[in-house]
Amino acid sequence: MENSVVNKKETRSHYIHLGAWALLQIIVWNIPPVGALTATGMHTLAAFVGLLYGLCFVKQYAIPCLMCPLIMTFSGAYGGDVIAAYAAGFSSSPFIMMFSILLVSGMVQYSGLAKALATRILNARMTKGRPWALTFCILFASTILTVFIHPLIILAIMIELVIDIYRKLNMKGNRWTLFILLDTCVLCIQSCLAMPFQQGPTLMYSIMTAFDSRISIINYTVPNMIMNGVYTLALLAFCFFITWLLCRGCVDEVRNYVPETVEPLNEDMKLALGVLIVYVLIQLIPNFLPNSAVKTLLVSPSVTGYSALFACVAMFIRKRDGSRFVTFDQLAGSGFNWFALLMLVGLGAVCGPMTSESTGILQWLTDIVQPICERLSPYALYVFLVAFCLIATNVIDNIAVIFVIIPVIYVVCVQVGTNPAAMLSALFPAIQMGILVPGATPHIAMVFAKEDTGYISFGRLSGWSLLRSLFVFIISITLGWLMMGLFVDPFTL
Asked: What is the DSSP string of 305-364?
């Protein structure tokens, strides 16, 4: 009887949210365009708002994700070509990259390597029965590894590792478990921003370089490393402190953990570990090589190509008895995070048109932001931009935020006499830290996708994400402003 009542409530809630999802899109779709927005732009915003609502509230997340390209077919952005709309989703760079990375993650999970590593971490002398040592090790490892390696690689592996630790400890619905997963994501997003060879800093500086060739990542590598390195350390300290402060009553299972006998790695685990080590090293080594044909060759595949290559390597390997190490079905079955992949299908269909002149969305946002910025003092301008970027990157794709805000930064900084390079680097965390809702970034989508494991819940994850966003805002308007003096004025170069 009780299950019947619960099912009726879930069914009612499901149809209510589906109705709200459809109604919201119909309303926005029919709002007359304003400012630089075109009818196509308003239709694109309607599809995006519907996708965001669906990701947050519709339990069958595949419905809004797969419907989004179909809705975009009629927006005017794809000329009514349904194949083009779906192709934009399934062929987007984030989707392809995530698809490849999750194959490597599947190898780690299927082979049992993640579980074996989790057992070793729990039984290590430094962490055994010591929750705060364990907490720091997880957060510190996530931070250091992401400084050099693409954050989605580390996040995909660390999430599985952490979940296996929770399974051993039987810690479902625990605040400590939620904090660790959330902060692993937060630190993976931030810690890659200091390095000039990471995708985010390179992209953002390259857009600024189009306005002024002197404002390049090469000219500002050291001050950017210092500024975002300090941000990273501050965020690591905050994440650890807030977990210690608010989770002291949630870690009895860690303290009372009974050590297990740590079994040696079996052949599958050793093979997975070997493939994983080479996979990481081959992407890390080029960063320390001088410019040469060899470096160019090693850098060219990028994380997407290397992930696909090493998934193929894993499928090629035969074990000592002649049997296959792993098959594609096993990689996909263990590694594919369908929430993140289907979210990227939906986002891929709407994000391209968002940056297109046919929608007018970028110009509309610029027309709103630039007049406000021109009336502010340098510090007030900086605070406004931090707040705008932090809010915007949590509700729309951060690529759109980047293309809107960087031209504004350059134009307004020249007008008020502030260094555009310093302003850009100081805004990196605010631009990238999309963590409040699943559609904000692929990084947080991977965490939200673990809701079905029972270790996190949507409402609590969003609520505690707000606290992390507030801290990013505070360190940006204090430490960021103070460290702008590290940057040489580009007009003196």
From this structure: HHHHHHHHHHHH-B-TTS-BS--HHHHHHHH--HHHHHHHHHHHHHHHHHTSTTT-HHHH
At 149 the pLDDT is 78
Looking at the DSSP bridge assignments, the partners of residue 363 are: none
Per-residue b or e along 424-439, where b marks 16 or more CB atoms closer than 10 Å to that residue's CB? bbbbbbbbbbbbbbbb
Distance CA 312, CA 317 (A): 9
Q: Which of 246, 249, 196, 245 is nearest to 220 (CA)?
A: 196
Q: Which residue has the tokens 């797969």?
A: 66
Q: How many CB atoms lie within 10 A of CB 293?
A: 7
**pLDDT at 4 exceeding the cut of 80:** no
Q: What is the pLDDT of residue 198?
A: 77
325, 118, 10: which is closest to 2 by C-alpha? 10
> How far is the C-alpha of 22 from the C-alpha of 395, rounded, in Å?
19
Predicted pLDDT of residue 262: 75
Tokens 């290590």 label which residue? 124
